[in-house]
Amino acid sequence: MTTNTAEELILQHSTNPINNPGYETKTDKAWARSYKPIKTVTSHTMISNGLTYANFEEAFLPLQADDDLRFRQRAFPPNNRHWRLETEADCENWFHTEVVNVVLSAWHAYPAVTQTSHTKPISEENIAENVDCVFSVQAGNARRTVAIGEMKRNLLEEDWQDGTIVSASQKKLSQELRG
């Protein structure tokens, strides 16, 4: 079996075929209505020929010295398989298998990132809602959130690409993202 580094796999695109029937998640969460919609978006993606291309190099901070250490960690590619993204659970499974498993191979130390799913966000406040996934690190005696994930299907419209949000459904999504 070929051994890859985390860097080699992170820089690849998933090669497993995906059948996306195009079903869309709707969002209209009551708790998000108190937040103002996002008016201006900075997009690091573009759509061409029906495909979305991401420009991660400009979206993220520059690499730091400890990233070299993480990138050298041993990693394994996802198993060969076919995907059908019919439900949000299918999207979560794809994301965790094809993306998270590869990325977390670089984050099993220096510090270790832990993933939890369908849980409350780590917060000093009591939050009633669960989120789809939380990535956190231990800092002293406390857990600190690195990222929160909420799965949606085919929800972003092309108007995000030009920096504006026009439709009512996209404004509702932006309010949820603010919350």
Characterize the structure shown.
- This protein has 179 residues and is an alpha+beta fold.
- The chain has one domain.
- The protein has helices at residues 6-10, 56-59, 65-71, 88-104, 168-178; strands at residues 4-5, 18-19, 45-48, 51-54, 74-75, 83-84, 114-119, 131-139, 142-149.
- The strands form 4 sheets. The protein has a 3-stranded antiparallel beta sheet with strand order 7-8-9, with no helix packed on it. It has a two-stranded antiparallel sheet with strand order 1-5.
- The radius of gyration is 18 Å and the shape is globular.
- The model has no long low-confidence stretch (mean pLDDT 87).
Question: Summed up, what is this model?
Answer:
The protein has one domain (4-109, 154-178). It is built from five helices and nine strands, in the order E-H-E-E-E-H-H-E-E-H-E-E-E-H.
Feature tags:
179 residues, 5 helices, three-stranded antiparallel sheet
What percentage of the residues does DSSP assign to strands (E)?
A: 15-25%
Structural domain tally: 1
Oligomeric state, counting identical vs distinct chains: single chain
- Helical segment tally? 5
The biggest sheet amounts to: 3 strands, antiparallel
Query: Biggest sheet: strands side by side, in what order?
Result: 7-8-9
Average per-residue pLDDT, rounded, comes to 87
In total, how many beta strands?
A: 9
What does the overall shape look like?
Answer: globular
What order do the helices and strands follow?
EHEEEHHEEHEEEH
Structural class: alpha+beta
Task: Give start-end ranges of low-pLDDT stretches.
Answer: none
Radius of gyration: 18 Å
| Span between termini | 44 Å
Helical amount among residues, as a percent range? Answer: 10-25%
